[in-house]
Amino acid sequence: MYNVLIVDDEQEIRTGLKLKIDWAGMGFFVAGEAKDGQEALDKLEETAYDLMITDIKMPVMSGLELLKRCSVKYPFLKVIVLSGFDDFHFVKAALQCGARDYMLKPVVRSEMKEIILKVRDEIDDDRNKQTEHSDTQWRLSQSLPAVREQLMLALISDEGEEHLLPLRSDIAMLQLTPLMNEEALIRFLCVEIRSTANRFETGEGQSGLFRLAFQMLSREIVENSRLEQAVFAFPHPSYPNIMNYLISSDTVEQGEQRMLQLKELVHETLKLHLKVETVIAVGELHEGLSTVRQAFLSALTAWSRSQAGAITQTIYADKVTYPAEKLLLEVEKRLLILLENAELERFVHTIENMLQSRKVSLQDIYSFMLRVVLLLDQAVTKNGLAIGQTQDWIFPITQWSFTTHQSAIAYLKELAMIVTEGIKRSRASGGTAVAEAVRQYIDAHYMNEISLSMLADRFHINTTYLSELFKKQFGSTFSEYLVQARIRKASELLADPNLRLADIAELVGFANASYLSSVFKKMYGVSPNEYRTQRAEEQNR
């Protein structure tokens, strides 16, 4: 039932309108009456109305003034005005103020019924559109957390302005609030759960459910702590027992307060609900979006210094010291280049120089090992190498066995040998593995801004060579494949009748619905709407 409000300064007219037609039979209920515009506004404040029938000439507040106010405050309210022959010149003004139609006094039953039915169809249409929009917004809201987590992983996976440039627009579009202020102070907390019971052994079943519970509870901690606008929780696939928290703040004092509040909440909540010990690593405070990776690595490095075993503990990142300071800059880039060129001997020689050039502490060794392992893991991913779980290469329980720089060098050399041999095999196969890694990256990130030069930088390949390699491997150019990937996904989303074409275009990475329609028709021979209709008919057969 749709609610109706009748507004007229004459009681006889209000009563006559109520009795003129079968309101209930047409899906309406006369829920209120008012004798002037001001009383009508009071009624509208108290109850939600769908239709208002109002006279134009009334005391206190005229129908025209009422219409002007309703058009601003109640834009979805349908209004029909009553007019006598002597004030018909007001009707045009009423229609300009948003009235849907008018009726001349005395009101004829058949004419009134026709107008009411027409307005009811408009209300039905509005309701359907609102429902579709709400459903679409709900679906988008359900997928947003996962997309934000993927964006966060992309931000911490590499550094440099060229890497950040295509991600800046995504931060705003996905409303990743803690990073929307590019000058904010940021730091990370890495939270690991440990238990004396064997609940985290690799495999399916209970361990997977327990980790899922850990991740869900970690997100709820943020949602329930009034820190949601300043903190973002996300897992990293290489560290399944760890949840990471990005904390943003405007001042050092505010950042410290938020960090302490979150740290206590995490300790208490996980202990209470999961009966586990927590290892919390607090990273250094950094400034600006360009420092996200360094901020994350400082927390991860702090975590690498944690004491082995199921012991609740908090580790704070120290100020960057030798050799980490150099590794963050020139040495890290040099090591990546040597890995990509599969120059094992020079790679090992660089590591030896870092660890043997001066006296280093065990803490420096552990921090250095973690950074190098992260570089090796990065090389494995970029080259699409089929190598086992790299997160097993270094773990707090493992690294304590390396008490000298010689043992650390030997271990890192062993891992580097695995990676460089894999890169050599990939190159010998004609770049098949690299091309496949690029294809997989496109399939996973088709909705983002992707260019051939960006991929070439990411995978450390010459742009022209990558273009030729990709076309040779898959029979289409990079641009053609990207468009095809987006269109394939769009065709899947068209199965959902609640998604508008504009929503689908945004979800798959097209600039607008018109461009999507044009490309879709070239690929499928029909427009997206025709394709949607055909699929619906096939499913109903």
From TrEMBL:
UniProt domain HTH araC/xylS-type: residue ranges: 436-534
Keyword entries, A-Z: Cytoplasm, DNA-binding, Phosphoprotein, Transcription, Transcription regulation, Two-component regulatory system
Organism superkingdom: Bacteria
Record has Cytoplasm as a keyword: yes
One matching Pfam family: HTH_18
4-aspartylphosphate: residues carrying this PTM: D55
Keyword Transcription attributed: yes
Localization in the cell: Cytoplasm
InterPro entries: CheY-like_superfamily, Homeodomain-like_sf, HptR, HTH_AraC, HTH_AraC-typ_CS, Sig_transdc_resp-reg_receiver, Tscrpt_reg_AraC-type_HTH
CDD domains for this protein: REC_YesN-like
Domain Response regulatory span(s) in chain numbering: 3-120
PANTHER family: HISTIDINE KINASE-RELATED, TRANSCRIPTIONAL REGULATORY PROTEIN HPTR
Stated name of the protein: Response regulator
